[in-house]
Amino acid sequence: MSPAESSDLPVLPVLTPDVLVVGGGPAGLSAAAALAPRVPGRVLVLEREPEAGGMPRHSDHTGYGLRDLRRLLTGPAYARRLTAAARTAGADVRTRTTVTDWAEAPADGGGREIPYALHATGPDGRFRIEPRAIVLATGARERPRAARLVAGDRPAGVHTTGELQRAVHLHHRPVGGRAVVVGAEPVSWSAALTLRRAGCRVALMVSRHARTEAPAALAVGATALLGTPVAHRARVVRVIGRRRVEAVEIEHLDTGARRTVPCDTVVFTGDWIPDHELARAAGIELDPGTLGPLVDTALRTSRPGIFAAGNLLHPADTADVAALDGRHVADRVAARLADPRPAEPAGGARLIAAPPFRWVAPGLLRPGDPAPPRGRLLLWSDEFRTAARLVVRHDGRIVAEHRLPRAVRPGRVLSVPWSVVPQSAIRTADPARGPVTIGLG
């Protein structure tokens, strides 16, 4: 029993929703909107930010909603639409509220199956939640400068994309006059557009790769619009400046040559990591590639009754892909709640990414399970490959090959049809026969 539940302290208020959704971004809101009309009890969404909507809230440019809403919206408009849809469907969306820890589940759920309990803190104080099912949709974040081990002092003017966009679009703060952007993937160009809107010129983008990670059309269009040069095969090794950034030191990865680029702002983009702290605290098995929860194609985690969706599982894909994850997981959660004695899945085998892929999601195959969200597997590559051929191996032999229609690029998720994994491999998926691996030929 936790200290807050001891007899010496006031008893915490208890909420008993059918479903608790942790995270009010596109995945969580879409799951709540789909679930609220389908379950007899309440669907509760907890979001730690002042408003729901996730990262699109402060990404004030177009490009959102094409896959899930069939229209193009700006990030804030997309966030508002998803939030309104969840509330209109009947979900209870609470902001400025954070799940702080897991609690001891009740011995008697009053006739309800209550496998877990959690504590949360919001504007009205601390409370306890006893849900029948949980959807983790806590998303992903960019690694900050400290996690990238970039040397130098700690001056003002160093941001991630998310921090930059919050400063510019939500708080309307100035960010400087001359910037260096670390990365050249799609989110890096989003950062460059935000800097332009704030009146800050991008002096240079720095990429570890020999080519720009973003799709060619985006990179060419953005370069023409912004006039931004890209330093390829390079990395930032030091931030110079005490009170404010004065310059960065850049190293060429092939020659070791170094140079100094004057600037007053540095934006570290990409290099995503899932917000998996709550999953880890629950003892949920993590995928060593994504570092998010290991899930099957129904988006079940290793703990019965706990599901996961969105960029917590595949850091980081687009917002509309995360939203469609939410719709997908809603079907599986509703089916579990409708079954008075839900059977836990058994068997299955790991689906593992082989180099140059870093990860594949979902990462667990079980016979009889549904196709993954959108009928797609998601992979992340650490290398460029053109005219690539996808190869699936199982039990020591090649079981399928698939010619990819476009180049494989770092910095963006590669989506491939679920059908690349043959049904025969899924039917015979068994840990005793080893994993199914997916790589390039």
Number of helices: 9
Please report the total strand number as a whole number. 30
Percent of residues in beta strands? 25-35%
Q: Roughly how many Å apart are the termini?
A: 54 Å
CATH-level-2 architecture of the largest domain: 3-Layer(bba) Sandwich
Query: Mind telling me the CATH class of the largest domain?
Result: Alpha Beta
Q: How would you sum up the global shape?
A: globular
Write up what this structure looks like:
This protein has helices spanning 26-35, 66-69, 75-89, 161-170, 186-197, 216-226, 277-281, 319-338, 423-427; strands at residues 14-15, 19-22, 43-46, 62-64, 73-74, 92-94, 98-103, 117-122, 125-129, 133-136, 140-142, 151-152, 158-160, 178-182, 201-206, 230-231, 234-240, 247-252, 258-262, 265-268, 272-274, 306-308, 349-353, 357-361, 364-365, 376-381, 389-394, 397-403, 413-417, 436-440. The chain has 441 residues and is of the alpha/beta class. It has 3 domains: 3-141 and 273-345, FAD/NAD(P)-binding domain; 144-270, FAD/NAD(P)-binding domain (3-Layer(bba) Sandwich); 351-440, Immunoglobulin-like (Sandwich). The chain is globular. The termini are far apart. The model is unreliable at 1-7 (pLDDT under 50).
